[in-house]
Specification:
The complex is a heterodimer of chains A (about 120) and B (about 110). With about 120 residues, chain A is mainly beta. Chain A has strands spanning about 5, 10-15, 20-25, 30-40, 40-50, 55, 65-70, 75-80, 85-95, 105, 110-115. In chain A, strands 2, 4, 5, 6, 9, 10 and 11 form a seven-stranded mixed beta sheet that branches. In chain A, strands 1-3-8-7 form a four-stranded antiparallel beta sheet, with no helix packed on it. In chain A, strand 5 and strand 6 (about 55) form a beta hairpin. The N and C termini of chain A lie far apart (about 35 Å). Chain B has strands at about 5, 10-15, 20, 25, 30-40, 45-50, 55-60, 65-70, 75-80, 85-95, 105, 110-114. By secondary structure, chain B is an all-beta fold. In chain B, strands 2, 5, 6, 10, 11 and 12 form a six-stranded mixed beta sheet that branches. In chain B, strands 3-9-8-7 form a four-stranded antiparallel beta sheet, with no helix packed on it. In chain B, a hairpin with a 5-residue loop joins strand 7 and strand 8.
Chain lengths: ~120, ~110
């Protein structure tokens, strides 16, 4: 069974640009969430999607957005990039996202560098 | 709001030493608890998890953790560490009814010296 797949793995963007990151969850998993990992802030929750609906949202500005498609694949978008957005963006999936047994599995992440 | 505290930011041990990494959480309701490990250059991997039942949980690679509800703690232990255990360890908590939002601790970097 393939794991959580994220693309691209590495990218460099310029301040002011926008970026779209993609995540394919484990087959059969319907819940997808996104996290930002930085040395200073650790792992911080961005948002979670289930059945194409955002169910939960962290404390990030509106420049950070996401969506989920009918096949459970998800994308996150960051507009008007700032230097502080440089981070590892992790996608995670689980069967339904709630309840016992819903272990969350992480992808390898997308390394974003903003210059 | 839930929060997680990992008291040790950087731990250095010699091989064969015993390990205990502290984790305390704050949340008034029922929680699911996790320990994840991130080896250098690799993605987060689940070490072990607690949902309910026996508070002593055994995970992969000889790790275990004990959930002590009265202390809001979920400390990670290993009797004898190996050089290959060098990694960053994250404790995490999720409201058991709260979808997939997981709150992570700031992580503990473990360095095992041969």
């Amino acid at each position: 069974k393939a794991g959580v797949t994220q693309t691209p793995r590495y990218l460099i963007k310029t301040r002011g640009q926008q970026v779209t990151l993609s995540c394919s969850p484990i087959s059969g998993h319907r819940s997808v969430s996104w996290y930002q990992q930085t040395p200073g802030q650790g792992l911080q929750f961005l948002f979670e999607y289930f059945s194409e609906t955002q169910r939960n949202k962290g404390n990030f500005p509106g420049r950070f957005s996401g969506r989920q498609f009918s096949n459970s694949r998800s994308e996150m978008n960051v507009s008007t990039l700032e230097l502080g957005d440089s981070a590892l963006y992790l996608c995670a999936s689980s069967p339904t996202g709630t309840g016992a047994g819903n272990t969350i599995y992480f992808g390898e992440g997308s390394w974003l560098t903003v210059v | 709001a839930q929060s997680v505290s990992q008291h040790n930011h950087h731990v250095i041990l010699s091989e064969a030493a015993s390990l205990e990494l502290g984790c305390n959480y704050s949340y008034g309701g029922t929680v699911n608890l996790f320990w994840y490990v991130q080896y250098p250059g690799q993605h987060l991997q689940l070490l072990l998890k607690y949902f309910s039942g026996d508070p002593l949980v055994k995970g992969i690679k000889g790790f275990e953790a004990e959930f002590i509800k009265s202390k809001f703690s979920f400390n990670l232990r290993k009797p004898s560490v190996q050089w290959s255990d060098t990694a960053e360890y994250f404790c995490a908590v999720r409201n058991s009814g709260g979808y997939q939002k997981v709150t992570f601790g700031t992580g503990t970097k473990l360095q095992v010296i041969p």
